[in-house]
Amino acid sequence: MKQVVGVPGMAVSNDPDDVLITYALGSCLGITAHDPVARVGGLLHVMLPTSAVAPEKAEATPWMFVDTGVPRLFDECCRAGAQKGRLVVKVAGGAASQTEGEDHFQIGRRNFLALRQLLWRESVLLRAHDVGGNQSRTMALEIGTGLVTLKVDGRTFEL
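RESULT FIELD:
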């Protein structure tokens, strides 16, 4: 069954027939975590790097921010049967928010930097990434296989 993850949003599944998908990854990040042994996985669509800008929003919607959403993703995957040490993490998005001129806020770049710092602190390796540029991406995770696909500019490929 296909489950669409909104902006911001998160879904976790242990049903091998599920496919988690998110659309329109611009400066946002799509982050997948998958345990290949337990066949549990999740997809997180985050908008901003740190919850410090809006703690009340982080309380209500933790998946809006890298620093609150990623730990929640890991916790939910583990509750569904995954082991944190086996999680395969992949990320896409983090594009420049402007196609012309300067990207003054550099949200995409800051999102990816915040993620890398958090993963380092959590001792979790980033297995693959497709970030930057200025194109929008669609990201999907097949729970049964762990296959992560990206669709960029009409082209689909495995991450």
